[in-house]
Amino acid sequence: xxxxxxxxxxxxxxxxxxxxxxxxxxxxxxxxxxxxxxxxxxxxxxxxxxxxxxxxxxxxxxxxxxxxxxxxxxxxxxxxxxxxxxxxxxxxxxxxxxxxxxxxxxxxxxxxxxxxxxxxxxxxxxxxxxxxxxxxxxxxxxxxxxxxxxxxxxxxxxxxxxxxxxxxxxxxxxxxxxxxxxxxxxxxxxxxxxxxxxxxxxxxxxxxxxxxxxxxxxxxxxxxxxxxxxxxxxxxxxxxxxxxxxxxxxxxxxxxxxxxxxxxxxxxxxxxxxxxxxxxxxxxxxxxxxxxxxxxxxxxxxxxxxxxxxxxxxxxxxxxxxxxxxxxxxxxxxxxxxxxxxxxxxxxxxxxxxxxxxxxxxxxxxxxxxxxxxxxxxxxxxxxxxxxxxxxxxxxxxxxxxxxxxxxxxxxxxxxxxxxxxxxxxxxxxxxxxxxxxxxxxxxxxxxxxxxxxxxxxxxxxxxxxxxxxxxxxxxxxxxxxxxxxxxxxxxxxxxxxxxxxxxxxxxxxxxxxxxxxxxxxxxxxxxxxxxxxxxxxxxxxxxxxxxxxxxxxxxxxxxxxxxxxxxxxxxxxxxxxxxxxxxxxxxxxxxxxxxxxxxxxxxxxxxxxxxxxxxxxxxxxxxxxxxxxxxxxxxxxxxxxxxxxxxxxxxxxxxxxxxxxxxxxxxxxxxxxxxxxxxxxxxxxxxxxxxxxxxxxxxxxxxxxxxxxxxxxxxxxxxxxxxxxxxxxxxxxxxxxxxxxxxxxxxxxxxxxxxxxxxxxxxxxxxxxxxxxxxxxxxxxxxxxxxxxxxxxxxxxxxxxxxxxx
Length: 807
Known about the structure:
Helix content: 55-70%
Shape: globular
Low-confidence stretches: 1-5, 109-124, 799-807
Radius of gyration: 36 Å
Number of strands: 12
Number of helices: 42
Structural class: mainly alpha
């Protein structure tokens, strides 16, 4: 074991032979090097080292016997286990170093001062035990060693003994050097009696174990200076552990500081763990606030609610009571008790300080959003944003985030994107949970803005940050929004996996709102997969959940999707109900979609006034996906004969609108923020072939596109590589031996719009005939992909236009 523990050939061979026969147990008190031996064995054999029981072969350093003994495992314990049948036991008599072994290790590490330190470290307890065994002692690891240690400690100076006993608290090196005698500390380190491990100083394991069993801790008065230094300059957790060992009230003060940090850093489980130990000492009311927050972050909503309610009732201090009320409102929001949450936030704002009032109103805005009072929420949050200028960045970030949500629900998506972006700029990297929440909301807004690729990148970052923060709820909502993104792109298998993962994360906490969105997403996915019965069942489940915790806007979204599966009379009834519910709460985008769905169902029975009205809404809301949705194209075609807003929408439909615009008739231009340059003019042929004809094998694509080449399959692979380089991996996918591609959501493509205009011709009112002809004229710019082998596809479009002109 070069560079490691010590080369003990006989011991290693013995362990290897024993493993062939069954599990091996190494047992002995601290100080025998069991941990170091296991780590070296794991490293050298490339097997796992674990501190918790597990099923696989490896090396396990445990505090108690595992539930079951397993083949291929070496387990280290401090005490001899009961029920040893079938086990190979290697106890202190085997683990102890012999004289020659210790000398060999010393020679390996060096001579002189290093030799003495090694001897003291490895030849203290283990060496004396080896000598005792050689002299015929039967239980030398108990009494003879005790006598030796007592004699050894008696030779220390009083100051050395005092410092050694204080170091049983395991302080950080920074705190120890501030609070303890520097010369004494240096002596103990030099003699190997104290070891620096993981930034902390601890006595040699044999000495620490002996002192813990035979001597009480030094008086608190002697340790107070060290613990105070630890709290101020070292590690709060170490200081808290020390105060808890003494059972003194100062533990609460340190706990408050530590809990605030742990909750902020996504380590709420530590707050709960130490709270359980702190209660045995005292339970100050202010401590309840941090524990309640930790329970909330851990998903234990009922316990969190009880702690906040307790804090509210015992608070005489207005400022602390306001904090408790804000926490209480936050838990009520998570439990779906939104009206009660609004009451708590309003009361908090009434009694709060100016700074607290802005925080309370930021939360109030979020609660108002939950009950569908979007306009009121936006007014409150705009006031907070104006009043918080120059103040706490976290508060401004939260206000911007909630304002983004309000705009989001009102259908003001571009404003929502800007608000989320402003919030994200203010979010600290030290607050991963807050960043994750803003990222997942921003990703959803970008999706609704038709910026699919930006949404995909943002949601991937949201999932990464949420997972790193350890907050299951944010991760669950990230997967919900990712599923929505995949449904839009037609990636149905990936969408289903995302929704099911979201359900795993959200269902255990009875998050009705989140699970309702999961069911809605699954319904959309199954509807697109042409599984209407499954979709309908999911929509009903969504309604059940969202009636518990959603707003009228979410219910309206379900009704709109249900209408797609129903016959016309029932569909129109659902759409009317959805539009009314959305209008009631100011969800303009949802209301617009309901109106468009209704017009698509009754086409051509709609008026120019109706078309102009929806065109005004589309322009104001910049709802790109609603412009490009195929079933609404007849409405937007008719907009060319409707009015001023209609003319603008018609121009966007026929000339191009959005972040990705693709021209393929008469000339080939692929526009994002700027024109996309391909390696050669033939590279995009692969992409368009898949768009026009659907999935294909490399061989089929090569035969169609590059038949003159010796290796057309390889040419296709090169073209795919170049397209992905220019556009991104998502534009062409490969699976089960075939390439597949379709325009990503939000992509305006002239050939696709031309086809939809032609297909919708029969559903236009007579007053829009001229607008239809104009649309066909503008869109048909010439040959489809000039020079490309797509004559058959072009012929279809020519026939379509000829047929349309003859109508």
